[in-house]
Every structure is written in structure tokens, then in C-alpha cells.
Amino acid sequence: MSPIHDQSYRHYGGGKAAPGRSWTVIAWAGIKSLIRKRAFMGLLIFAWAPFIVRAVQMYISANYPQAALQIYLSKPLMRSEYIAGKLAVLFSFLIAITLVPAMLLLFIKVMFDGNFTFLKTNLFLIPAITIGALLQVTLAAFTMLALSSLSKSARYVGILYVGITFFTSAIYGVLYMITGSSRVSWISIGANVSQVVDVVFRLKPRYTTPWQVSLLVIVALVVVSISVLERRVRGVEVVT
Length: 240
Hints:
By secondary structure, the protein is an all-alpha fold. It has helices at 22-35, 38-47, 49-63, 79-96, 99-113, 117-121, 125-148, 154-179, 189-200, 211-232.
């Protein structure tokens, strides 16, 4: 009988997770940690206010014609998996307040009308809503994640993101007053998104800036964000 204290080396007999799935651990842990925060859930519910308002408007319009949305445990944790996991968290909640309520509004419109006439006439709305939401979510997710890689303070990152958005809009407003032309709208992050979304929904663009330029600016911002993440985020290998 070998002594109890003899704990010599032995091969690991447990299972080994397949590589490439570590991002799911990060995503699920991030989603759970945010759900536990009452302030965040309150903000999420508040973001659905436009959906509720539009749903009520559709109901009234349909029925009264006269009236009228310990964490990272993997070995090793690759940079791409870490970024994918973080993006999955942002995408999940951003989609929940953009794509989901928009699609629900379309469904409610059909339900209140009691027929598919509106949907058949405007069938392009399904891909338009999807593309428009993904465009906004992709830009917001990548830029927020890139900014978060520069600071450990979530509050600072949030203030910085909102500040940049409003600052670029303010710069555009000043230039518009000086030049009297909206061709400089490409300076505003929000204006670029609105310009491309207008085209996606077959609406007349609200600015004179070519929508291709606005799309190019959005792509450039995503590329810059990826570059920042490439430099700031490093793969981690946990050894025990």
C-alpha cells in the first residue's frame, strides 16, 4: 500500500474542450453580469420605450382611424476569442434594443391590420430593418469595445463614447452654419449612420453628402477600432 502523502505526477484524466469555443464563456459570463445590474436592466427597459410608444400608436391607428427597444476560464484564451466574446455581449444587448423591437413593430402592424397587405407591399422592410440595425450595432459595438480597451473604467468609456458622438455632431452643426451646406455631414458619426440607413429604407437621404462617403467613414471607423483592439488586446494562456 502506497503512503497517503505520495502524490507523484499523473496524467490528467479529464476532458478537454475543443479550441475555438472560448468566446462563448466570455459572452455568457458578460451577459449574466450585466443582467444582475438593476441600473443596466432599467436602462434596457427604458430603451424599449420607443417600441412601446409605436406599438400603442399602431393599435390606436388600426382601431381608431381618426386618431392616430471568476469570468474567462479557458486554456489558452486567444485574442480573437476574447474579442469575439466581448462583441457577443455588446451585440446581444444592442440587437435587443434595435432589431428585435423593430421586427416586433412590423409584426404588430400586420396583426393590428388583420391582413398581410402592408407586409406584401413593403416586403423590403424585413431586409432593410435587419441591415439598418446590424449597421448601427456593428459600428457601436466595435467602437465601444475599442474605447474600453483604452481604459478599465466602464463609466469613463461610456462618457467618452457619448462625448465623441455628440462632439462630432456639434462640429458638423458649426460647419453647417458656416458653409450653409450639409456636404460636411460625414464628420458626424450619427449623420453617417442616418445617411446610409435612409438609403437602406429607400428614403431620400437627409444630407447632401454622398451615401457612399458616409458608408466609407463607417467602415473606416470599424477598421480603426479593429486596429486598436489588435494592438491593445493580447492572447492569454492560463497555466496551473
